[in-house]
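Reagents: none. Just compute today. Galactose oxidase.
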Amino acid sequence: MAFSSLVRLTLSIALISSFVFDVICFTPPPRFAQTSALIGNKIYYMGGVVPLPEPIISDFFYLDTSILSSTDSTTLPWTELTGLDNLFTSWGTAVAGGANKDLFVLFGGNMTPAENSSLVIVYDTSSNTWSKPTISAPQGEPARKIKTQAVVDSTGKMYIFGGSTSPDLDNSLVNDMSILDTVNWSWSTGTQNGAPDARSDYSATILNNGVIVYIGGSNLNNRYVPMSQINTYDTNSATWANIVSTGDIPSPRGGHSAVLTPDGRIIIYGGAFSISADGQYTAATPDMAVLDTTNNNFVWSQPKAGGTAPPQVAYHSASLVGDYMVVSFGNITNKGPSPNVYVLDTKDSYNWVTSMNTNTSETNSSSNVGLIVGVSVGCIVALILLGGGLFWFYRRRKVTEEVIETPGEFTDAGFTRRYESMNSATTSQNSHDFSKHLTSANAESDPSKEFHPSYSHNFPVQHDPEVEDDDKEFRILPQELQPEYLEKKFNNNDNI
Ligand SMILES: *[C@@H]1O[C@H](CO)[C@@H](O)[C@H](O)[C@H]1NC(C)=O
Ligand SMILES: *[C@@H]1O[C@H](CO)[C@@H](O)[C@H](O)[C@H]1NC(C)=O
Ligand SMILES: *[C@@H]1O[C@H](CO)[C@@H](O)[C@H](O)[C@H]1NC(C)=O
Ligand SMILES: *[C@@H]1O[C@H](CO)[C@@H](O)[C@H](O)[C@H]1NC(C)=O
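Predicted 3D structure written out:
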């Protein structure tokens, strides 16, 4: 009996520990098609497609790149924030908007539940508040779009070209240019004159002279745009132009990323293409290519990056932080969603590195390490406190416990009743149920009731009639930690 209690206590500590790791020591699950934007030194992320039959997350978090000294995703300085109205979002696009470039401005994408969705949602990173801004639209509001890539100019205007107005890509690709003023909150429309064909999954990069460079992506029927064909939109003159680039031209692709270096190189990374109707994707080659925009003719090159190249992703995020290109998440071609962050040093030669030397101003690498160690130590301290607290609680309850027998009743109303039902003689039927050995023999010392208060109101239990009852022990966990969730998470990759 003492042994069973010990097992139960240990199990509880283990379960709570994993909960703490998940919530306090936040590590975001793998995903692709998330929306992201670099604001200051922080990359903000929202939602994305996760490997489950149904999307269940709408998390919102940031990665503080100023203390990024290792790219091991379990020790990265992630910080979870609160999302908006239970919204689940994927395939949207976001920029750093507002007069101070401190707003996370998210346009479009798939957004559910519909009752709470909004064409534009805004997170103010200074006041940590969400809003759904009222936007004037003298020429009408644009349609909700997915698979676009917005850019923002120095005055806070967000340019959203093309994309798809419904998940049915073949019938819904568009080539209009919607412009959102993120300072004065108004919509306007760019010219269609000279605009390229309708397309999605391209990359967009705004140069310092205000010219937006559109690269790659796909037109109707999976026809990919040749990478030699560069389309530009000049935000000063509101005109489209075609540029035929030269040099070592990479293969066509969609879902790639593009970042601009201070000296005028556009580095594209990743992406994939699909030539068959079966939806199979092939990684585009090479994974990385560079378009030099410094002279008026655009020239491609395909430098080989040193270090260990990451598995090739599409529909990932990429931001340039200092001299480093930070690549995060994405769909690993033929494998599925990635949880990882990779860093390419773009300064002298191209090198995949495992840590960043963010040596700007006062911060040096030793203080960076200190901060990360601080985060981990914080987690460990939280765990020890929790474990200790639980042990104390357990001991105390054991002394003062008074048992009230309740008839077993199988219900989802909450943990309390559920736990009682699993401990009643009629439903205890397998070896995983530690209480089996206790209930009939000696109900008074049944330790199972001791954890009611900490759980009953925290996690509503989802009862899935398909799942055998032998995992009841674990099903008091939040959904993210349930074995069947984790199994699906790592095995089921065919959700889009
Ligand atoms: C919509 O948002 C409100 C306010 O945050 C929230 O209470 C409600 O649950 C949301 N609706 C759904 C269906 O999640
Ligand atoms: C916003 O409005 C103010 C005042 O009406 C104006 O001075 C400013 O130029 C506008 N900003 C943008 C980006 O249009
Ligand atoms: C994501 O990757 C999976 C596994 O390779 C693949 O089946 C799926 O089509 C991909 N989805 C997209 C949108 O690239
Ligand atoms: C980093 O900072 C240290 C101390 O401030 C300085 O000595 C060193 O040169 C810097 N390294 C780089 C690469 O800037």
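The mean pLDDT is 76.
Action item: order primers for follow-up constructs.
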